[in-house]
């Protein structure tokens, strides 16, 4: 079935439709992972995005029960150069087309993704639609659309829930957490309680946690400051705190570090960072659009992790038992180089 990718600049690209036949509009985002398309599709941080996969082909591995980062994906669509329509005959795997239909996600392939990515490098944000036509009415629709704000509120859990274990107790503020993060905590026997994004300070105190995690998620710092500032005012310096992704940005802003917008958001794997203390280089997964200007840091830090592409600060730990990482330490998709951060956080809790 022929479908069109409509861009707000008035251009369109024709390709083959896959998955759901709905019309969908969102923000174009470049997904640079060469593997792990299922994790990228189900990552809540990608809520509201239409993902452009730069790898030449996706779909060959199918969809499995283990690699979900959330059960109900919130991406608005996917764009690919080519798609493997058939997978091995294994009842434990689902083909990509039927998965997309089931989750009501449209896709379009046979698109020159290299040319599309090149165009995106010259623009900050581009709205796009996957549609059946490319007439004037279609362009009017996309120009009139306003992208939703505070997407983290829409992907956060509505009710608190427990992820029981027998070790340290941790409260997780959910702005769009990934299942693989919970898995790594469980492997370390962490007894976790996942809380909604708008959890009040007394609710956290009643849990008597030994540490707090502010998860990653979609959205901007200013959209979640109101919920997180009271939490940081009450608990920063009292409990170990780990901010991931959006949590990294909020914690950096709270410490008066200057956030610098990246020329193009990092969304994928194999981003090199270096530990300033050990000079060890890790390949990490990131899904973020800002990092910290090193010269703005007026606080003595125990650890500093620099992004080798931009020379900006992509992670740090403070003497007040706080860790902040712009990267996803669990990878998924990505390398496992940064798993040590989970162990560092557990040690902070004593």
From TrEMBL:
Q: Which SMART domains match?
A: CPSase_sm_chain
Which InterPro entries does its entry note? CarbamoylP_synth_ssu_N, CarbP_synth_ssu_N_sf, Class_I_gatase-like, GATASE
**Source taxonomy:** Bacteria, Bacillati, Bacillota, Bacilli, Lactobacillales
- Could you list the residue ranges forming a coiled coil in this record? none
Q: Which organism is it from?
A: Lactobacillus bombicola
By its UniProt entry, which NCBIfam families does this protein fall under? PRK12838.1
Top-rank taxon: Bacteria
**Pfam families per the UniProt record, alphabetical:** CPSase_sm_chain, GATase
Q: Which residues form the Carbamoyl-phosphate synthase small subunit N-terminal domain?
A: 1-131
- Name-wise, this protein is Carbamoyl phosphate synthase small subunit
